[in-house]
Write a structure and sequence with these properties.
It is a single chain. It is built from eleven helices and seven strands. By secondary structure, it is an alpha/beta fold. The chain folds into two domains: about 120 residues, HAD superfamily/HAD-like (Rossmann fold); about 60 residues. The strands form two sheets. A five-stranded parallel beta sheet has the order 5-4-1-6-7, with helices on both faces. A two-stranded antiparallel sheet has the order 2-3. Helix 2 packs antiparallel against helix 3 and helix 5 runs parallel beside helix 11.
């Protein structure tokens, strides 16, 4: 890294970086789909239906209810939505973030229901100074527009931002507009996160 560049804010992806599905997530999906072999197709259909809600163009609950109807699943949507909040923050990673003096932000693709749960129940509204949910920005990663909008809202030049994501496509998109970006997975652990941050002259 250029020693003259000062990182003014670190952007953390959510899923795969600061959080992961809980142990109950997979069994709950299998029970809902009716058979483990059906989970892949079931999830693929849900993810496709979810996409408009990731940019705030639709409500996930509506799209989910339509998928459940097609699969003949007669359960209240509110009950099924709980599966999407079966999330565990990575204690190791959260501990590092809590120790940082630099501005820390969440930069993640989420629909409103999950975003609200993460902010409130996982206390991300307290942990991060800024929460950049795609559903609120109206654009999602890996679009370069997502990162441009984040930089605009922070009023920080892209060269002074560091972005961490477990998805290489997202990292490359961030780099394309001048952000410092690194592929990082929460499984790499807190020590590896500290190494990355220290390589950008961030004390931790």
């Amino acid at each position: 890294m250029d020693a003259l560049v000062k990182i003014e804010a670190v952007l953390f992806d959510a899923d795969g970086v600061v959080q992961r599905p809980s142990a109950q997530w997979q069994p709950a999906l299998e029970a809902l789909a009716g058979h483990p072999e059906r989970v892949g197709a079931f999830l693929a259909e849900i993810f496709a239906a979810e996409k408009p809600s990731l940019t705030g163009q639709a409500e996930f609950s509506t799209a989910l209810s339509e998928v459940l109807a097609r699969w003949g699943i007669d359960l209240p949507v509110a009950e099924v939505l709980e599966i999407w909040t079966m999330i565990e923050p990575s204690v190791d990673i959260i501990s590092v973030i809590e120790s940082l003096d630099v501005r820390c932000c969440l930069a993640t693709n989420q629909q409103r229901h999950r975003a609200e749960y993460m902010s409130r129940e996982l206390h991300y509204a307290d942990l991060f100074e800024d929460l950049f949910y795609s559903c609120h920005l109206g654009v999602m990663k890996p679009s370069a527009r997502y990162f441009l909008e984040v930089a605009r809202r922070l009023d920080i030049l892209p060269v002074n931002l560091l972005f961490l994501d477990d998805n290489r496509t997202n990292v490359e998109a961030a780099e394309s507009i001048g952000l410092n970006a690194v592929v990082f997975d929460q499984q790499h652990g807190g020590n590896r996160l500290r190494e990355i941050l220290q390589s950008f002259n961030i004390d931790c």
